[in-house]
Queue: 3 jobs
Job 1
Amino acid sequence: MWLLFVVVYAAVALIALLGVIKYTRIEVGHRRKYALRVRTSMSRFLLLTKVLKLLLTKPASALAIIALVIIILIPATAASYSYVWVTSKVRGPVEGYAIHIEFSEVVKRDEAINAIMKHIGSFVQSYSSYLRVVLEEPLNLSAAQDLIYVVVGVDEKLLKELIGRTDVSGCVVCRDTIQGVLAEEKGVKLLCVSPSKLASATLIGDEPLLPVQAYVGVKPVLPPPKNVLILKRGEALQLLNVTYDGISDIVIILSSYIPPNTISSIISELSGIKSLRYYLTNGTVLMYSTIPLPTERSIIVALIASLLASIIIVSIYTSLLPEIKLLYDRLAIQGMPPWGITLIIAILTSTTILGVGVVETGIIYGIYGGVSAFTSLITSAIVWVSAFSYLNKKSKPKSLLTDVYTPVTKRYDLVVKDAEIDVNELVDTICELIRSNEFFIVDEVSARSQDSIAYIHARLHYTETWGSGIDLNVAISKNSEVLVSISVTPWGIEEISEAVVQNMISLAVSRVVGGIRSWVYKA
Amino acid sequence: MGIQGIVSIAIKQLARGSGLQIALLTSLVITLLTLVVGEAPPRILLLSLPVFSVLSAIFTDVHNIRSSFYALILVGATIRHVIAYSATIALMYVAIYVLPLAAIRFFTLPEYCLLALSLFTAVVALLITYYLHARSVFTLVTV
């Protein structure tokens, strides 16, 4: 325990020491002018980070974030989803109502059948199980025309429909053997069939027997029949070394119509469903989308939560607006453009609303799933848009809303009614004011004076840009009073906005005018 | 200046600010949300909503309330008056949020009853608010 105290003591002492050193460095040996220069040369990113830090440390921001986090959780926890039926027409003949369920992998037959019987058992007239497997490694059969990539396991009924007999294990497209002739391979009797027979075979309706590999538009792409081996399902399982009674497809013939919603319950019971098709007697097939979509109620909850969060967060941030305006006014004096307040509000709302919302949405996705994350994202986005729009509108003065700017003068005449002023001293003061202007890098300052007349020229490079600046000319004449005429000509080799030019002019003129006034007052 | 006068001032001052309107609006929305959302979200989430709404409403009116405190002190109010002023504001907010809290607690009641009650309360409260706001009777000079 004593070691812990020693470590804590050492850490506190070290932090205190660093603080003292930092304080000493700031206070001793640095002139105010230099300190100002460091601040204005701060990058815009760093400046905005500091502004953001200042605003985030307010209690209102913390309250807004906590309120948002909790309100986003409500639609996430209340979210529910449903699957969508897509209606299509079936070309093949279907006798009565039927359901075809295709699994994405081989599943246990008993479990699948039990789940189906549990929900629609009283409507099931008969069912057939199939196995359709695409091999990772091809199978080489001497009788087959080509390597076997796909193995299809069927029941005896379908085999009989396909080749007219059930005393063989299956069928294949043979190499050099006439169709209808038996080929024996590893003790398995296979009937040679034509490729067209396999290609046209169907499970039910227009659903092909061969597993669909892909779709080109709406047209299914099937494996070449020469690469397919049809077997009885039991023998297919043996060939594939599947130790349990596995299936990949099941076709259920129903005795009567079942509402689609009843079938939907099977989806939640069975896992790994690739597709579900519900055949109706009028030639229509309902295809069940396995992509969950949020229900209408979930969306309504998300919208109401968005409204609530928007009201709460906007009202909280409204209380921050006076401080934001004050902060902007201070930054505007240091050269922040008029749209700076929009930038501040955008960063504040993006960080506290959109940033928090997106992070929370990610966490919700991991815990509750995609539908909950979707509703949370809706809430976050709506709250952010409404909060940003409202605050941005409220923060601007009416003159800015109507795009009316007060033009900045390029010429300024200052009359000093103190005839005792020494012109040379005034010239030195103005030169010092120009040199110490932290917003410009001084390229050149030259001054000429004779008796009661003086002229100063300065070429200044604006620090916020890389190729723009101003030529500053100051003419001084002294009679019964001192007249200081200031004129500014902006220049630049880059394309900069009007707002930046106005900033440059006002920063240069105001420094000279303000400096002279304060110098005269002190003198 | 009596306690009754302070209570009257607090009610009028609150009615003039936008905090009360925000509280009424959020009260209505929370009730709606409670009715729509059902029992799915944890109860603590719903119960925390009125708290945030009250806080946001107070944040909205924070400058008015603060200046009222200063004004009250300037005209000679004691700590007793300030407590009465604060308590009145707090009680008004609690009254506003009784409805959503009731909705959260007893949402097994017929939903349309709660909804109708909520709408009625909101409309009446808004009418009263605007009536007081329009008259703009609150001035500390008249105290």
Job 2
Amino acid sequence: MKYSYYPGCSLEGTAREYNVSTRAVMRELGVEFEELEDWNCCGASAAETVSYLLSLVLPARNLALAEQVNSDGQVIVSCSACYVNFRKVEERVREDPELLETINQALSVDGLMYTGKARVRHLLDVIANGVGPEAIADRVKQPLTGLRVAPYYGCQTVRPYSPFDAPDFPESMDRVLAALGAQVHPNPMKAKCCGGTLLTTKREVGLKLVSDLLQAVEGADCIATVCPLCQMNLDAYQGLVSQKLGQPVSIPILYLTQLLGLAFGLPEEQLGLNYNIVPFKSLSAKLAG
Amino acid sequence: MSEEAVDLTGQALDRGFLNALAPAKEKLRICIQCGTCTASCANAYAMDYTPRQLWHMIRLGLKDEVLNSKTLWLCSICYSCTLYCPRGIPLTETIGTLKRLAVSEGIQKYKESRNFYRAVVDTVRRHGRMDEVEVMIRYFLSTNPFMAVGYAPLALTLLSKGKVSLSLPKVGGLGRLDRLFRKVEELEGKL
């Protein structure tokens, strides 16, 4: 089966390492996918503050594009904030056929129609359940032995729609990390919130969330994420967190796909490791040794 | 956190307020005020009204207090309250509805949050996608240009890492989603 791929806006900007590492790893795993042509922003958390209909029409436009490629195809979404918006429109139109009609009236200006048949999958779901730990373990060339990795799922990956994992204490990423040979570091806050856009609009409140998350995994070598906003918030504010706590905090925040790539023996430049803000090099030595 | 009693004597009541919150309104009626939402909220300590208080204020019809509440803009949309609510009330989504009402009624408080979301929506209308740099520029200009100073260290880090660039996206040119946005406004009776 060939998937449609919806990278989302962040993966063209601050999360470009997530995009390149996803492509490299999917190639390696033999997962066929093609980026949706002409995709648009899902509306993030912003559209719903302006218009309920707009918050559904924006993701629906992408699903309509996916249905043009394959009428009941599956769409891989890598960003958890996008994933929530896509899942929301899926659920809403299933409950409310009139709403689907209204959405299609809007989409008609672009000559598009959404039937509700396209199915959205989070990238983590495709990796953990579509490919699965056994097939992943088969590809491992350089096991991440001795690397203590704390899995961090964030909130919207598993809430409120969690067709593939537990909404409060998920485990799918844990299984993938174990398949890579890594030591899964216990993370009691694995599905707590990173603060999302609060780091921009209410920084003090957002910083407390980030600092609690970073402190919860003390002793880990790195944190694995599957959402660009989680990655950015945990990675880019460690200087401010250090000031706040009065002690230095420095822990690399990697995308799960980057860790997969390392275990598959892919070259670092294919994984965009130079884009992570807290440098990864402290880990390279550990992996080599 | 401890919840303090809120003095609501003499406040104006809007009995129709709950009805404006469709589709959640019927469910909000069955809230048992157990406080599980507040207990599950990581940001409740910083709110002016806790989530539990907010639901009850809605039922009382305290529209002005609710729409002016800082609580709306401190929700980070993590869906914990929705997950744990024993009554199955779509609480996180209700906060979204309240934000929308606050914006449409022109509530002036917490304009930094409102302006940020507006900047995102305007950028998407223009480019179809969210250019993170343009969002921030629009946000600073609409709120307070000097606030950009506070973001300078982060911006420099991102630029030096090559994570963001200062060019605008090339896809489709200006107003790429204009027609779609206008149609949505028409369907919602805003045109």
Job 3
Amino acid sequence: MSEKKYTTDEKFLAPENRPHTVIGPTGEEIHVDPLNDYFCQDMPKVQSPHTGIVEKFLNWARAESLWVLAYGTGCGSIELPPLFSPRFDAYRFGVMMRPTPRQSGVIIISGYLAVKTLKRAIRSYEQMQNPKYVIALGSCTINGGMYWDSYNTINRLDHYLPVDVYIAGCMPRPEAILAGFGKLKELIKSGNAEGANQYAENLQWYKDNQHKIIKDWNMPTYNW
Amino acid sequence: MSIFLRILFVIIGLFLVLNWGLIMAGIIRKIIARLGMRRGIKIFQPYINLVKNYSIRSQLSHGVMFYLGPVFRLSGGVGIFLFMPLIYGSDLWSNFSFTGDLILIAYFMFFGMLGMALGAGEGGHPYSAIGISRGLAQFTAIEVPMTLAILSVAIQYKTLSISEIVAAQQGGILNWTVFTNPLATVAAMLSLLGAMGHSPFNVVMAPQENPIGPPTEYHGTFLGVLQTNRAILHVIEAVLYMNLFFGGATNWGVLILKTFLIYFWSVFVGMVFPRFRVDQSIPWFLKIPLVFGVAAIIIFII
């Protein structure tokens, strides 16, 4: 992520994020540039896994304790609450909802992704910590589904976030989502679910794609 | 007894308490699940969550106090443990208990909350301050009847040593404080509901309902430390109540049974009653439990 620097157009910035001057308690003037001063400017690095039996054990623990970000987009988000009802009971597979991206390891993009929502999805995904996994739910995330020629939804989620598991259907039933979790567990246990490292490795490509879609970029390049 | 042997037994005791706390959390969540007609988590899920949280690869900090918040919280929990006699009549399992340990433990109960407040304040989350002030306000309201009940027990037995309070309750179930001083027991058991953080009073730490709880920014190892502390704290608070009101324990089997039942009391109430808002829970603590607490003090004055 060194070749090309994106500049943030100032007209999209929220007022509190624009460069401004603050008067200190003793009268001195302090110049503040929030995007540079308040936000971490570092880019993510590839965090190499441990080797051998240690990584296998840790991967087993990661697979058996999937904390899902309680974040829904599109129609699929209505399929998520029944997962935790007595009928489907995802808890028995170690799946749990977390309210904050900091504590969650899985983000489910549950359906079509409007341009406006894509920005929020990227922010949420980047705030999660390595290792993290993406489940794409429904045909909208695969090829756009019934919104494939819509003016404000993206077609292939894969271009913007590294997807680990696709669950096809419109909409997939909660059973299908449980099967998706099973598939994700297999991937994690076999050590093949390294989406976070893949994202860090190909950050330039992902950022290029994201900037093509999001014209009013008003956040740091990478949202820690 | 040499200091090294004592330290060795403190470490073994801490290990046992931590494991019992994690298993108890699993059992309780299994019971809650069965009540809700679900199969629920695995009993050992808290262990798996702990391993996973400690194995998160990338972590970020917001400053020194952000680091120290979970450390303070853990030292609060371990601090209570260090001065708590676990098994009555056993010198090995008395930890570092001394004559005035009741006061020190009452102090340590609040210590972790304050450290957490400082840490979460630096978390950068704009609503952390609101979350922590709600938590502290409610815990202050919990502390009032709890402190009155503890003082009442101290006046009753004319000692501030937990070991002596346990010793005074030996010799039959009717010697327990729950029968000799029921007013203090009621006040303490009602305030326990808040201290354990289960349903009627857990809205301050319910990030699911309002994403502004204090631990919102904590992840990975930070969260792992907080979970470790919670496992220790739940057991050790139940041990405190067991020692003060339910005759203590003469072996580990009794300790496990009694702490489970004391902890289960808060879970039981939590399953039956829905959550209070903070503006409802604080007046509640300052009404019914406080009346019992004041009455428990007054009967020893007149």
